[in-house]
Amino acid sequence: MLLVKALEDKILSEGSVLPGNVLKVNGFLNHRLDVPFIMEMGKEIARLFEGCGVNKILTIETSGIPIAFAAAQEMSLPVIFAKKHKSKNLSDDVYSVEIESFTHGNTYTAVVDKAFLNEGDNILIVDDFLAIGNAVKGLIKMIESAKATTAGVAVAIEKGFQNGGDALRQKGIRVEALALVDSMDDSSVTFRK
Ligand code: 5GP
Q1: Which residue, among 83, 140, 135, has the nearest Cα to 110 in the 3D structure?
Q2: 13: domain range?
């Protein structure tokens, strides 16, 4: 797949590995956005989930939003993003979950207005990274609370050695990663084939 190879090459040439198993890709995904490239990732996610009857995309702020947006544009679907801070312009009627953050080492509350997740929805979860899987598990909990179904999970980068993706697959959830990192250290990144 051309896009997968292009993403792997971009990770190798522009990414760096930080202590604590963090892959830094600020140059195109987490700080500066490479818009044409993100749109291509969206197209690939749309291709993978074509014909699956998805009617909404769910992500979590901040870095999931651009990829979810790109996939949604291609699939002609709305995006709902879970908010990490309960702002004043949100109703009290929210789905709320506690999520332990891998990168920040803290626990935060993510909320989605109940008006935006409905019984019978078939929802595709999209995020930038999948590591231990806490963020995705939190989003799945909200989907279950709404009596909706999870069509699958699509992420730009999965760190396979942290097992979050495989744990979800074992539960029967379809998980697609555009790039799947098998191992990494400060001098190399290896992808699962
Ligand atoms: P999980 O909940 O699966 O452990 O972690 C997923 C979330 O943590 C993602 O939404 C992402 O924001 C962040 N994250 C996890 N690992 C990495 C990483 O290696 N690099 C970056 N930039 N973010 C990560």
Answers
A1: 83
A2: 2-182
Cβ(158) to ligand 1 under 6 A?
no
Q: What is the pTM of this model?
A: 0.97
Report how far ligand 1's centroid is from the alpha carbon of 6 (Å). Answer: 21
Instruction: Look at the alpha carbons of 80, 84, 90, 94 in this order and tell me if their dihedral is positive or negative.
Output: positive
Unique residue bearing structure tokens 């995309």: 57
CATH of residue 63's domain is 3.40.50.2020
| pLDDT tens column, 164-189 | 999 999 999 999 999 999 999 988 99
- CA-proximal residue: ligand 1, atom 9 (nearest): 129
Cβ of 143 less than 6 Å from ligand 1: no
Tokens in use for 137?
């598990």
Cis peptide preceding 62, ω within 30 of 0: yes
pLDDT the model gives residue 152 = 98
| Residue 52 belongs to a domain | yes
The 10s digit of each residue's pLDDT in 33-91 is 999 999 999 999 999 999 999 999 999 999 999 999 999 999 999 999 999 976 767 77
Strands 122-130 and 149-159: parallel
